[in-house]
Amino acid sequence: MYVREAHPTDEWQMKSNVKEDVCYAQPKTLEQRVAIANDFVKRFNYPTQFGIDDMSNAANDAYAAWPERIYIIEQGRIAYRGGMGPFNYHPEEARSWLAARYGEVKHEVSVAPAEKKNN
User: Fold this and answer.
1) 1 lies in a domain?
2) Cβ(36)–Cβ(43) under 8 Å?
3) How many domains does the chain have?
4) Is 8 inside a domain boundary?
5) Residue 78 three-state SS
6) Per-residue pLDDT reduced to its tens digit, 63-95
7) Whole-prediction pTM
8) Residue 10, domain member (yes or no)
9) Among residues 16, 62, 94, 101, which is most buried (max CB within 10 A)?
């Protein structure tokens, strides 16, 4: 779920946003929010569908999703609730939960370009 922008240029921009060329103003309309989400999908070849919060930020408020958080929903119920980011955001915990529930991933996981530079 894409919720409000965490580090927009017109609020609290981070140096890392400039370095990674991920610089957006806080969207004021749903159309602007959709455009940013579409840019993300194209830029990172994101293969999974996701929702976009409305401008009242109802999903963010209901799930305490800002700036980042992982939920796994099964049959309309929360089956896994990750910690709130950035300090308690651990995607590897969600991966382990999914592996325990459904088995290990059978394809190689690609490493993002930023991660390759640090290795």
Assistant:
1) no
2) no
3) 1
4) no
5) strand
6) 887 778 899 999 989 999 999 888 889 999 999
7) 0.66
8) no
9) 94
List, in sequence order, every residue forming a beta bridge with 74; answer none if it has no partner.
77
Is the CB of residue 54 less than 8 Å from the CB of residue 61? Answer: no
For residue 94, being part of any structural domain is answered with yes
**Tokens, residue 117:** 């530079």
12-16, 74-78, 104-108: which has the minimum mean pLDDT?
A: 104-108
Total residue count of the chain as it appears in this document: 119
Query: CA torsion, points 46, 99, 90, 14, in degrees to nearest 10?
Result: -10
Contact 66, 88 (CB under 8 A): no
Cα distance between residue 78 and residue 19, in whole Å = 35
Mean pLDDT of 22-30: 92
The answer to whether residue 42 scores a pLDDT higher than 80 is yes
Task: Assess contact for 117 and 107: CB atoms under 8 A.
Answer: no
